[in-house]
Amino acid sequence: MNAEELRKDFPILSERINGHRLVYLDNAATSQKPRQVIDAIRRYYEHDNSNVHRGVHTLGSRATEAYEAARERVARFIRAKSPQEIVFTRGTTESLNMIAHGYARAKLREGDEIVLPPSEHHSNLIPWQQAARATGATLRYLPLQPDGTIRLEDVEAAVTDRTKIVAIAHVSNVLGTVNPVREIAEIAHRHGAIIVVDGAQSVPHMPTDVVEMDCDFLAFSGHKMLGPTGIGVLYGKAELLAEMEPTYFGGEMIDVVDLYESTWKEAPWKFEGGTPIIAGAIGLAAAMDYLEKVGLAEIERHDAALAAKAVERLAEIDGVTIFGPPPGQSRAGLVTFNLGRVHPHDLATVLDARGVAIRAGHHCAQPLMRLFNVPATARASFYLYNTEEDVDALVDAVLEAKEFFGHAIG
Ligand code: PMP
């Protein structure tokens, strides 16, 4: 894999930021888009644009074919058994809310438990709080090790026959830890619970096989994997999608509508009320073509190697605190850190002046920030078009920031 070559496919990477080469290290928030994805969307609007599933005309058929082909593309990408297990949504957040509202609320009873780590992104936490509040179920949190990992024995202890749902990110967007979801799924299933996997940070960066993982639901976003914003995926095992209720209603999703009652289409179409995100799905399919051509296993190695190098070099800087696994321990392609008492927003501003784009804030994980006892952190996250030169630029910029904020370190 040649990141330098791949960079040429991403027009935005030639932007100059404050007179510097753009060093884009905010990929966990959203990724950049290659020409191939931008072109696929443009081609659709220039040649095939129409509404789907109803037009009895040529463009209607072309748009429908392209949209349903995108569904098949997604199914192949995550090795789902059937395209009917793929629901198009607006993103991870919407997918998780649909599970919590359309599936979980009908299943949960008072005394039931939902097991999850305290490090979850707000979108894999608040929907469960809401479902618990509505049903009388309770949330039960897994303990985190100081390096952010989760021990299987703690999962064994927390998951009981009261557990109905285990909700967990495959890769933490703050810690960069890779959770053992396959083993956790096995524990959940042994107790008759289902497992909901937040794949927002894993599906873009590593090979995914939902059958092998044996997850019951998987949620992810197109925009973090070279696709456009506004498109995401809810994968669900066929039998669970059949049981799950739609959470919004209207055109396209119905079978027969009467004045007082209506019936729905089968899954996945019953979940896609209204005109679907046609161009988004087509853009996502093009993104998946691109990622598979490069190779997900290669991308995983590449991102993790850059993050490992960044962790190692940042940890050598006096005053830098690394969150999550320490240097030398396995982590996904992101690193979260702080520089002394410098507020991460100030750090990110200084880095931006040098063209280095990182994230600063609570990363939609306020309970985890409270566990760390910090208001916010800085985060650099890598993707296939990042290079060792980008790691150097990050480290150099942090060193410069250290000079600049000297009084607040130590
Ligand atoms: N879960 C995780 C782990 C994430 O990193 C994100 C995005 N930051 C989300 C969920 C939410 O994704 P989206 O905003 O695309 O719905």
UniProtKB/TrEMBL annotation:
Catalytic activity: (sulfur carrier)-H + L-cysteine = (sulfur carrier)-SH + L-alanine
Any one GO molecular-function label of the UniProt entry: cysteine desulfurase activity
Keyword Membrane attributed: no
Family annotation (SUPFAM superfamilies): PLP-dependent transferases
Chain segments annotated as coiled-coil in the UniProt record: none
Obligatory cofactor(s): pyridoxal 5'-phosphate
Record flagged with keyword Manganese: no
Keywords carried by this UniProt record: Pyridoxal phosphate, Transferase
Residue spans crossing the bilayer: none
Domain Aminotransferase class V: 23-394
GO biological-process terms attached to the record: cysteine metabolic process
Gene3D superfamilies membership: Aspartate Aminotransferase, domain 1, Type I PLP-dependent aspartate aminotransferase-like (Major domain)
Domain of life according to the entry: Bacteria
EC number annotated for this UniProt entry: 2.8.1.7
Database matches in PANTHER family: CYSTEINE DESULFURASE, CYSTEINE DESULFURASE 1, CHLOROPLASTIC
Function: Catalyzes the removal of elemental sulfur and selenium atoms from L-cysteine, L-cystine, L-selenocysteine, and L-selenocystine to produce L-alanine.
Family: Belongs to the class-V pyridoxal-phosphate-dependent aminotransferase family. Csd subfamily.
Protein name per Swiss-Prot or TrEMBL: Cysteine desulfurase
Taxonomic lineage of the native organism: Bacteria, Bacillati, Bacillota, Bacilli, Bacillales
